[in-house]
Amino acid sequence: MEYIKAFLVGGLLCMLVQVLLDRTKLMPGRVMVLLVVSGSFLGFLGLYEPFAEWAGAGATVPLLGFGNTLWKGISKAMSEDGALGIFKGGFTASAVGISGALIFGYLGSLIFKPKMKS
């Protein structure tokens, strides 16, 4: 049941973003930034964590979840290091995910030999 819930929540989030892209003149990069900032803001308000616990990977994997992870890292680092935590907390919290994306992206490029579009 958890897989179905994650699939449905993740699919609903993706559908909403696709509608946003189709109905507005926002560029994809701006929509991505909007998602990360929204996840951070919802984390700040304390609304994202209960949603993520209920929805599982359907809520933590998309960019909203990345924004929430940044917020959790920043809030933890601020409580430990004060204002300096604003600058280092997000990097510390998201380092594993970013490193994984870079490493697996590189390995994928070695396996599949990407080419520039002509």
Structure notes:
- The protein has helices at residues 2-23, 28-45, 48-55, 57-60, 63-81, 85-112.
- The mean pLDDT is 91.
- Helix 2 (28-45) crosses helix 5 (63-81) and helix 5 (63-81) runs antiparallel to helix 6.
- Helices cover 84% and strands 0% of the residues.
- The protein is globular, with a radius of gyration of 16 Å.
- It is mainly alpha-helical and 118 residues long.
- The protein has one domain (2-112).
- Would you count the extended β strands for me? 0
Largest sheet: none
Fraction of residues in H or I helices: over 70%
Tally of individual helices: 6
Please, what is the average pLDDT?
Answer: 91
* Structural class by helix and strand composition: mainly alpha
Strand fraction band? under 5%
CA-based shape? globular
Order of helices and strands: HHHHHH
| Radius of gyration from the alpha-carbon trace, in angstroms | 16 Å
Query: pLDDT below 50 for ≥5 consecutive residues: which ranges?
Result: none
Oligomer designation: single chain
- Tally of discrete structural domains: 1
Distance between the termini: 45 Å
Could you write a compact summary of the structure shown?
This protein is an all-alpha fold and 118 residues long. 84% of the residues lie in helices and 0% in strands. The chain has one domain (2-112).
Per-chain topology:
Elements: H1 2-23, H2 28-45, H3 48-55, H4 57-60, H5 63-81, H6 85-112
What are the main properties of this structure?
0% strand; single chain; 6 helices; mainly alpha; globular
